[in-house]
Amino acid sequence: MQLNEELKKQEQEITSRMALVRNKVLVMSGKGGVGKSTVAVNLAAAMAASGKKIGLLDIDLHGPNVARMLGIAGRRLESDGESIQPYAAAPNLAVCSMALLGADPSMALIWRGPRKTSAIKELLGGVNWGELDYLFIDSPPGTGDESLTAAQAMPGLAAVLVTTPQEVALDDARRSASFAASMKVKILGVVENMSGFVCPGCGLETPIFSSGGGEKLAAELGAAFLGRLPLDPKAVMFADSGRTLFDMESGRTRDAARAIAEKFAGVCP
Ligand SMILES: Nc1ncnc2c1ncn2[C@@H]1O[C@H](COP(=O)(O)OP(=O)(O)OP(=O)(O)O)[C@@H](O)[C@H]1O
Ligand SMILES: [Mg+2]
Fold first, then answer.
1. How many domains does the chain have?
2. Widest CA span in the chain
3. Rg, Å, the chain Cα set
4. Residue 254 located in a structural domain
5. Which of 50, 68, 95, 98 is the most exposed place for a label (fewest CB within 10 A)?
6. In ligand 1, which atom is closest to the CA atom of 34?
């Protein structure tokens, strides 16, 4: 009985926090390492720079990368026992991640499903975002406990699907799309990442992971194709040093990231 009441209270907390959030967007992929965190961080940064109020919640409990990518690794979030204050990483951009909570973010979390579900719910009900135009949620790959909990706990959740262009990534992305359909999560659009490597020496473009797969998938799903990000070694350097793609000098990658954010804003105003 007591447990039921606690669960009900938590549900109410989630509902009242999420009532202040206009758009809830899960950034997901079937395959690991295809650029979810990169897309989540850069979409969040672009929208925040355009004046929207943005939250970025990292629910990748085992591999939280958002803090490093935003140059705030090592910061700690304040909690008064009732609520957690997200970290203001930039004007209009508040961030919460497991890497900013707990004692030592370099230690592995050795948790089974129920513990993960409960941690995600605590974050959804506990983080004091206030009013937001967009809450971007960076997820681990696939359709496990973390994404499932978010989808169940957040009615109206939508998604951006990130994939690399090759068939093995698309196969996994289709599984994510099927998860989204089952959970009534609308796929707002598809981003094709690591699409074509342009040799900095000779300028020749090589489609290392094939090309066109993201656009094909978007058409299959009847979702918007948000654009492609080139495979750019500088993207790694910038992420590792806590800078977004918009901190780059003008060029293909920065322009591509800007175009993706603009297209996203069009499909999710
Ligand atoms: N377009 C790109 N060009 C070059 N490197 C990229 C590009 N996009 C992402 N990366 C790099 O590839 C690595 C994986 O990207 P990222 O962490 O965003 O993927 P992910 O899908 O979030 O991974 P995970 O499944 O582990 O959460 C990172 O080092 C990132 O900086
Ligand atoms: Mg990630």
1. 1
2. 69
3. 18
4. yes
5. 50
6. 21
- By CB neighbour count within 10 A (0-12 exposed, 13-18 middle, 19+ buried), where does 144 fall? middle
Q: In the numeric block, which tokens belong to residue 230?
A: 């080139």
Q: Residue 223 phi/psi, 5° resolution?
A: -110, 165
- Determine, yes or no, domain membership for 3: no
In a domain, 37, yes or no: yes
Could you report the per-residue pLDDT of 96-124, keeping only the tens digit for each?
Answer: 999 999 778 788 888 888 899 999 999 99
Dist. CA 33 → ligand 2 center (Å):
7
- Ligand 1 pocket member 168 (CB < 6 A): no
CA dist 73 to 12, 30, 34, 114, 206, Å? 31, 26, 21, 27, 34
Phi, psi values for residue 198, rounded to 5°? -100, 120
Domain that holds residue 28: 10-267
| Residue 1 domain flag | no
Alpha helical stretches, state H, 127-197: 145-153, 167-182
